[in-house]
């Protein structure tokens, strides 16, 4: 019972699944950062949108804008 038994018995499935899980986790951690950085909206743009919708007052807008600069 050498390496032939290992491949024929299906014991290679478990290490393969483990490797697939590790690769998937690494992709989720490191691979998606690039996706989000391309679509980032600046804090100032978000602040302007909130002011335009009326979520914050003019004074709040100017205070927050100072903190961002």
Q: Can you describe this structure?
A:
The chain has five helices and no strands. The protein is mainly alpha-helical. The protein folds into two domains: 38 residues; 29 residues, no CATH class. Helix 4 runs antiparallel to helix 5. The relative contact order is 0.07. The model has no long low-confidence stretch (mean pLDDT 78).
The biggest sheet, with number of strands, parallel, antiparallel or mixed sense and barrel status, is:
none
Strand content is under 5%
Number of domain modules? 2
Low-confidence stretches: none
Record the SSE blueprint.
Elements: H1 3-8, H2 13-31, H3 33-38, H4 43-53, H5 58-68
Helix pairs in contact: 4-5
Keywords for this structure?
rod-shaped, 2 domains, mainly alpha, 69 residues
Care to give the gist of this entry?
By secondary structure, this protein is mainly α. The chain is 77% helix and 0% strand.
């Amino acid at each position: 019972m050498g390496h032939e038994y290992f491949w024929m018995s299906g014991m290679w499935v478990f290490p393969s699944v483990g490797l697939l899980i590790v690769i998937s986790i690494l992709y989720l951690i490191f691979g998606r950062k690039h996706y989000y950085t391309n679509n980032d909206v600046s804090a100032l743009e978000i602040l302007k949108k909130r002011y335009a919708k009326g979520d914050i007052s003019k004074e709040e807008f100017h205070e927050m804008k100072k903190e961002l600069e």
